[in-house]
Amino acid sequence: MLKKLSIILIFFAVVTQQQQQERNLIDGIINLLETGNRQYNVFEPRDMPTNQLRASYDFIVVGAGTAGCVLANRLSENPDWNVLLIEAGNSENYMFDMPILANYLQFIETNWKYKTEPSKKFCMGMDNGQCNWPRGKVIGGSSVLNYMIYTRGNRRDYDHWSAMGNSGWSFEDVLPYFKKVENFSIPAYQDSPYHSQEGHLGVSYAPFKTKIADAIIEASQQNGFDYVDYNGAKQVGVSRLQVSLRDGVRESSSRAYLHPIRDRPNLHVKKQAMVSKILIDPNTKQTVGVEFVRDNVPYRVKASKEVILSGGAINSPQLLMLSGVGPKKHLTKMGLPVISNLKVGHNLMDHIALGGLTFIVNNTFKSLRTDKIITTENLKLYFNEHKGPMTIPGGCEVLIFQDLENPTDKDGYPDIEILFQGGSIVSDPVLRKDFGITDEIYDAVYKPIQDEETFMAFPMLLRPKSRGRIMLKSPSYQHKPYIFPNYFAEQDDIDTIIKGVRLILNITSQPALQKIGAKLHAIPIPQCAHLGFGTDPYFECMARHFTFTIYHQSGTCKMGPRSDKRAVVDPRLRVYGVKGLRVVDASVIPEIPAAHTNAPTFMIAEKGSDMIKQDWGYMQ
């Protein structure tokens, strides 16, 4: 281990000395991530050789992401059940654990690298009018790629799920499962009835924060916001981020739920295996197993009890449709048999923000610039003590929840989140590539300030009204599906984001941020300049150009009662019209909560695991 750390330190020292050559920095970090990814992770369950797999398992879990890792852990608690977890990607590695490098993980083989279909209504400032939609293709799934932000949402979200006909999903019902997930270590809230220290997932503050973050919090309080535990009794207010870190290190679902059970004999894990089809008897509608492909060779494995899809909001609906479960008209057009006619792929939701809203500060207040923080000293601090700026998740530091419709209600139902980063698009050469911003716009708008100290604020739409759709591109599992997010189909979504921009401008005008010289960067996007910088029409144009996903795709296998014509699964997450098949992941979300969706996905998987155990007569 010491030799490995020495190599990393020497490597980064060399790269940092060459920081004037931007490409060297990017290529160097990505190369190190890819090299590390090829190393076997001894802390995970091993990749079971194909010839050692059983012919049949009690349960087959498809997808080892956030939900899949939870399910594999909880179902294999019964020593009499055999569980197979299948993942298209490979293992994590030690480099993925470094929180500051979150934005680099989108450029390696751990990312499915999805893109939305081109549009002239959103993502217009991105290459080819397409937004990048990174999704985890790795043991741990998107919890390996994400920014580790841990927010549950509002109690009204889950009470609404229940009111929609999803019995058992009220806030009172789901709170025990949120608590079951977390090992909560923020001292100020240790005795809260909303938290637990008994769960698998570490939840904490990052060990480091910038002085810019301190100023943002103080300015927010000057603007009337209370400092809150937004995962507690009330959500409205300002806070440092609660994040899925343990001792300054990323806590993915794999680290939290698979590493502790790596030697459990009744759990088999098959990596780098792509499930191409769910095997369903067309006459009895009984699920009998799955077909997967490894090294271009197809294999079939049976499931005696259930197949459980945990592929996420893109892969789960795609696999259902490839297997004959989906909209009859669409499947027929694809030449696929229809086993159950359901609205699979509909109800696509996501959280989006107006991106690129940048503020310049005095040079004496240091922002999170990659060329300044990736140093030998900071790397030693991280590897030896798990402290320092390397522990900040992708540069994200502070958030605010606000109910714009009822701004004086301290217990409101937030419709906007303001997410602050201790740097901006100019702070790291990869950030603009993460989102796919065109070189033309970057050079015109941001290149003039690339040597400045800056921070960025995202007004994030929490309760979008617009809905999109996932559709098959072909009847082959090898072809990625069409993604139509349909952002801004409802004008209310644009209007809410613009109100969020105004809130940001109010906060940044407060004394604490004025003291450090915070000033809105005012070079307009060329395509929007004719509308007048700073006007509502300008910010609408900016939102349509810089439509930044916050990576919360959900809803495409909607949970609902049988009376809901758009429901794909029932409130126990069983697929309608098919026996022995469930979906347990973010795709079942009926209406997206006012939350970053990783925490709700953990909760859904914990609750789903108990439902499965109950239905098969096993409860500890």
TrEMBL record:
InterPro entries, sorted: FAD/NAD-bd_sf, GMC_OxRdtase, GMC_OxRdtase_N, GMC_OxRtase_C
What is the required cofactor set for this protein? FAD
SUPFAM superfamilies for the chain: FAD-linked reductases, C-terminal domain, FAD/NAD(P)-binding domain
**Keyword vocabulary terms for this entry:** FAD, Flavoprotein, Signal
Q: Can you tell me which residues bind FAD?
A: V138, V275
- Highest taxon of the source? Eukaryota
Q: Which residues form the active site?
A: H552 (proton donor), H596 (proton acceptor)
Membrane-crossing residue ranges in chain numbering:
none
Gene Ontology MF: a single term? flavin adenine dinucleotide binding
Asked whether the UniProt record includes Cytoplasm among its keywords, one would answer: no
**Domain called Glucose-methanol-choline oxidoreductase N-terminal: residue spans:** 136-159, 312-326
Cleavable signal peptide: 1-17
Q: Name one Pfam family in it.
A: GMC_oxred_C
Family, according to the entry, reads as follows: Belongs to the GMC oxidoreductase family.
Q: What is this protein called?
A: Glucose-methanol-choline oxidoreductase N-terminal domain-containing protein
Provenance organism: Brassicogethes aeneus
